Amino acid sequence: MKFSIIIPTLNEEKTIASCLLPLQALRSNCEIIIVDATDNQPLIDSPHTRLADQTISSKKGRALQMNIGASHASGDILIFLHADTTLPEHALQLIERHLGNKQWGRFDIRLSGNHVMLKVIAWMMNRRSRLTGIATGDQVIFVRREAFSAVGQYPEIALMEDIALSKTLQKISPPICLNAKVTSSGRRWERYGIYRTILLMWSLRLRYFFGADPETLAALYCRGQFWKP
Q: How many whole angstroms separate alpha carbon 175 and alpha carbon 135?
């Protein structure tokens, strides 16, 4: 198998190197594609782009950016990696070993940070994902190229695109839930407060379930607010 790692970025010029450096050992069997939506000092002008195979400028929108990256990818397996997340050791071998006849999957997650509740949150995310078959982008979704095309790629909505993609992919195949853990930044949880962010995320999910506009939900998410974006 050949893999394509697609990284959507927005204002990650200070942190992108920490994302790209651990991926260099994988490049013999993997291409790295950055799709950047930064307006001021875009990454395409950064020296760090030498650590990727392609750096593409895009309009803002994580789903849009990931779809653009997929359209430029040549891999059999697409891996959608957030810029504040790192893969576990031997990630590609684990995917190849366990994917079998399934079409997609995700990793377990741990959240970096000092607060003890971050471990609880990560455990709950992993448990919920196993029970529902829904993956979050932080868990690093990987999918066969053909399956991604068959379901129409990511729906280009402002938020909850990972949930929407998971639901369509479930119609083709249940996900592979790998025990190996990606490490994702707990910065959002610590910035807005652990318990407040838990309530906010459940509130946004519930409102999305009942048909709320993803644009409105995205504005609330970005500001850490419950009402009036």
A: 8
